[in-house]
Amino acid sequence: MATAPKSATGAAKAPAKRKTTPRKKGGDDKAPFSTPDLLRDYRQMLLIRRFEEKAGQLYGMGLIGGFCHLYIGQEAVVVGLHASAAEVDTLVTSYRDHGHMLACGMDPGGVMAELTGRVGGYSKGKGGSMHMFSRKVNFYGGHGIVGAQVPIGTGLGFGHKYKQDGGVCFVYFGDGAVNQGQVYESFNMASLWKLPVVYVIENNLYGMGTSVARASASVELYRRGDAYGIPGVQVNGMDVIEVRKAGEKAVAHCRAGKGPIILEMKTYRYRGHSMSDPAKYRTKDEVSKMRKESDPIDNLRAFLLENKLADEDALKEIDRDVKSIITKAAEFAQQSPEPEPSELFTDVLVDA
Amino acid sequence: MPTQVLMPALSPTMTDGKLAKWLKKEGDAVASGDILAEIETDKATMEMEAVDEGTLGKILVPEGSEGVAVNTPIAVILGEGEEASAINEAPAAPAKAEAPAPKADVPAPKAPAPTGIPAAPATPKAAAEPDYTGETRPMTVREALRDAMVEEMRRDETVFLMGEEVAQYQGAYKISQGLLEEFGEKRVIDTPITEHGFAGLGVGAAFSGLRPIVEFMTFNFAMQAMDQIINSAAKTLYMSGGQMGCPIVFRGPNGAAARVAAQHSQCFGSWFAHIPGLKVLVPYSGADAKGLLKAAIRDPNPVIFLENEILYGRTFEVPIDPDFVLPIGRAKIERSGKDVTLVTFSLMVETALKAAEALAEEGIDAEVINLRSLRPLDTETIVASVKKTNRIVSIEEGWPTAGIGSEIAALMMEHAFDYLDAPVVRVAGADVPMPYAANLEKLALPQVETIIEAAKAVCYK
């Protein structure tokens, strides 16, 4: 394995695409993706945004406990990248995971019910916000320990190569996790063994309350694979079209058996690190400037309208539709009962 | 219909707070994400964002109000086309955000029974151990471990071995001799010296449906990988509501070797046995090594397989039938006796057997139990033995505090108190880091004499 790229994943069968519409041939570069694709992105990003706002509200009502990390502001990253994912591909991320689950196609009601600790949640209420999984859509968590998902995702990439299923693993982690030692242990093995892994660094500028500059000796995070020969690309993570383009290239690199690649997504979270973070480490102006000028949803909406790819009514229809999905999800999350007391002792071990 | 805005809980512990400032006034348009107000919690001043769109129809709680309880309606938002006169129709705050939470009269989970004795079965229901009547051959524990891996790798394509020096070097302790030749570099993988990384990689591979055997050159180095073993491998099944099992074996030598001092000589049996979600096996003989390692590889759960360097070279009769697999969770009575029970595991089984022989010469008939598994622990076999002997000594290399002996002593209180004719005695390693000097090292580890002394003490002889 260590020396033989012979059976690299590139040689395996081409994986089935998920649901992306073929792009227009010779289309202009501003809109390299088809309108249905972009409308899908709009809808997905809005779904995540509204879901997170609702989660914040339910947290405020005391329905969600403990830690709750919202993805508001970062939606373009996972939505744009997941557009390149095939059915066989796998995804793993940290505790800021609600957006990733929705992008994978997990049911908003099931995710919200896990947040409220109900039996209808993806983990039957035993995992909570930070620990959710779905084998059905190849979502492997939802990990609460900063950086731990990086070796795990590298192992998922190892699994793709071992099974020669043509799959790629998307491993998401933040600018805080990027200084964990196990990240570099993973980079080393992934490059050594040419594993099909897209390492996505979601650089939202703050690891909890510490800015990248105060935590990282080098802030060019896309270069963190240099020592291991892993190529890295910095991407405007607030622009879903840019993210899509970068994702396609990265996935092609992995599927061709060339080993891992790093994408540094420059992004921004509007809310605090978790619900109980007042975010005093940055100015209000900084946040409102990002919201006003770089919002991925507003900007895509404007792009669609300016280029007459959609009209107000069509977008409003999506807005309404998303709102009703979220309302239903929130209702389900409140109506689903708490787990039976007998659930306390189940799922500790698989019956051998 | 108008929507009420409720006083939010902005930290896990907040029950009320101060409505410090309204940033919108009555009549203002409000969009999702707009900051409505500033709330002072027990910890900090937080901004409260709007979730619903519309017009701020009415402020119900003026700014400056202190001690506003969480979930108190503080304002009303009017939807498109709604008049202020509709405010009275605003639905009552979703009365108490509490879920249909279990009422007080709902019976508490069975587990913590009133006495504090766990109702979860203390004795695991392990399958009975089948009598092996097939052919055996004398071989070393080292060879038995290798054969176990070879047989399972032939049987199941998803099984692979990874670790430091397992492939080309043939294993730092020569356990994986010949494996690279037979299975190739896809399935026998030399890793960099990077325990945390490859343990985590193994966990990911196991999630993806493979069955990794991760070798730690010694378990001392598994400390680097502890987070992945405990937080990822052991807990994910539970945290995923039963979806995400982790069929992985972490194996390697554990316990004191000889003259390698503190950082390379320690028993981690009690550490791992503490963790729900793991199985922890501690083989003694060649048959244990082979039958339990095969069981571990076939098991759908994460298994910690603690070998012993000194035992690697010992020779035993070992079943050669590839279908020979031992059940996990069954202790073995290595020597039958009626006067005192000596319960132990791994290399200390050998020491205890020597002690039992010496005790026999003095007229004390000791029963020696080889635990083989620390989690699950075969309480049933220990209790049955104590019912017969009425006396028990636990023996381990590890430290006494919160050790396996402590667990056994507690179990005897819970399950065999009425049968004990003497207090449980623990024989354990000295409560110090392992010294290097030969004489001190010997003093730090249980010896035949220590066990004899303890056995006599519980027999009042």
Walk me through what this model shows.
The complex is a heterodimer of chains A (352) and B (461). Chain A has helices at 35-60, 75-82, 98-103, 108-115, 149-163, 181-192, 212-215, 240-255, 284-294, 296-306, 312-335, and strands at 90-93, 139-142, 169-174, 197-203, 206-207, 210-211, 232-236, 261-266. Chain A has one domain: Rossmann fold. Chain A is globular. In chain A, strand 3 (169-174), helix 6 (181-192) and strand 4 (197-203) form a beta-alpha-beta unit. Chain A is of the alpha/beta class and 352 residues long. With 461 residues, chain B is of the alpha/beta class. In chain B, the strands form five sheets. Chain B has a seven-stranded mixed beta sheet with strand order 11-10-12-13-15-14-20, sandwiched between helices. A five-stranded mixed beta sheet of chain B has the order 17-19-18-21-22, sandwiched between helices. Chain B folds into three domains: 3-89, Beta Barrel (OB fold (Dihydrolipoamide Acetyltransferase, E2P)); 136-319, 3-Layer(aba) Sandwich (Rossmann fold), CATH 3.40.50; 332-458, Rossmann fold (3-Layer(aba) Sandwich). In chain B, helix 1 (141-155) runs parallel beside helix 7, helix 3 (195-207) runs parallel beside helix 4 and helix 8 crosses helix 12. Chain B is elongated, with a radius of gyration of 31 Å. Mean pLDDT of chain B is 91; it is low at 92-118. Chains A and B meet through helix 1, strand 2, helix 5 and helix 6 of A and strand 5, helix 2, helix 3, helix 4 and helix 5 of B.
